[in-house]
Amino acid sequence: MGTPEFAVAPLQELVKNNFNIVGVVTVPDKPSGRGLKLNKSAVKLYAEENLIPNGVKLMQPVSLKDEGFLQELKELEADLFIVVAFRMLPEVVWAMPKMGTFNLHGSLLPLYRGAAPINWAIIKGETVSGVTTFLIDKEIDTGNILMQRECPIGERENVGSLYDRLMGIGASLVVETVEGLMKGALTPMPQSGKITGAPKLNKEIARIKWDASDADQPGATCAELVDRLVRGLSPYPAAITAMTDGEKQYEFKVFETSLVKGSDAALAAGTIKSDGKNFVHVYCADGSAISLDEIQMAGKKRMKIKDFLLGFRNIEQFRFI
Fold first, then answer.
1. What is the pTM of this model?
2. What per-residue confidence (pLDDT) applies to 36?
3. Half-sphere exposure of residue 102, counting CA atoms within 13 Å on the CB side?
């Protein structure tokens, strides 16, 4: 049971290792774009090409409590359900198979329970991430742990690269977990240690705050917090900000930044320093500064800052808000 590419990788590994896949569950096709064309999930696309031709059943329930869907699940007579990046399951579903239902989560639980664990690990300045397989129970991301694998976070890593690495590690861990359960070699262990959340991302979270501070990250400058936010949201959904000269206002997505050495607390938050050709430095409320290296103005293509400055020679007349 899953939706995005993160769920495809474990499914591929299970197929590669000759496990008997009897059914795949994913979300219904969703309309998008001007023509409201129905888009298929990554899991469905993989299943259509590799599993359905071999008799594997594909299910796309609107409601996980639908009687018809529940009957289809029962008729599969599956020994085990595996969930990766899907929805919260009702007990009638996760309690169905005799070996239970386990989930692959993109963090070292109980750290970063929630919808966006990989993003939040970078946003919060973690140096280590990982993946966890755990048995599903009545609460979100609270079940007993089966297996975990750590993964270091690179100093300049963004969520895109960490996502890709965890996807591969997670795929292997799913296979190891299935093998361990089949052999009776795993002892589920209650989660212990510090609990942190990873709430769903939204525009308010994604908006850069040039006066940012965070009690969870003592000692970090505002510029460091901005840089972590940018990396934690790049390439998707991307951090956002706006620039104004008091009359005009431009919205931006920010994909790449770097820290500027030194500080100037005398400058107001959002102040821009630039040579008009090669760099744009934005100052924070504490005097620290960030270099904008790759951005995208609303309605324009993504570009390096040098290319952007070709159209904004007078950028120091603006400030970021």
1. 0.94
2. 67
3. 28
3-state secondary structure the chain: CECCHHHHHHHHHHHHCCCCCCEEECCCCEEECCCCEEECCHHHHHHHHHCHHHCCEEECCCCCCCHHHHHHHHHHCCCCEEEECCCCCCHHHHCCCCCCEEEEECCCCCCCEECCHHHHHHHCCCCEEEEEEEECCCCCCCCCEEEEEEEECCCCCCHHHHHHHHHHHHHHHHHHHHHHHHHCCCCCECCCCCCCEECCCCHHHHECCCCCCCCCCCCCCHHHHHHHHHHHHCCCCCEEEEEECCCCEEEEEEEEEEEECCCCCCCCCCEEEECCCCCEEEECCCCCEEEEEEEEECCCCCEEHHHHHCCCCCHHHCEEC
154 HSE (CA, 13 A, CB side): 11
Segment 202-225 shows an average pLDDT of 96
Q: Which residues contact 301 (CB under 8 A, 6 or more apart)?
A: none
Alpha-carbon gap, residue 206 to 199, rounded angstroms: 12
Judge whether 247 and 174 are in contact, CB under 8 Å.
no
